[in-house]
Design brief:
Elements lengths: L1 H10 L11 E12 L2 E13 L5 E2 L2 H11 L17
Antiparallel strand pairs: 1-2, 2-3
């Protein structure tokens, strides 16, 4: 719980570099294509501009994302995803 409070304080008072809107912390999911395969990163702490929706990530979060992509972290689960082409 303490970690969460510290994280929220990280974005306090920060403004978007594009529209000057306030940045608020939200938890988001990221989808990335890595070596031809899609991966989903769940529950990523993200700074999101309330004005334009631009996303910002703290350096430690980017490091965790990189570690997950390079498979240094244990896979939580695998799911099959239907794909449609229009």
């Amino acid at each position: 719980m303490r970690k969460r409070e510290t994280s929220r304080a990280f974005w306090e008072g920060e403004r978007c570099e594009y529209c000057d809107g306030p940045i608020k912390e939200k938890t988001t999911d990221l989808t990335r294509k890595v070596k031809g395969k899609y991966i989903i990163l769940e529950n990523v702490p993200t700074g999101v501009c309330s004005g334009c929706g631009t996303r910002y990530y703290a350096a430690n979060i980017l490091k965790n994302i990189e570690e997950a992509i390079r498979k240094r972290k244990k896979l939580k689960r695998e799911v099959k995803v239907p794909i449609y082409s229009l």
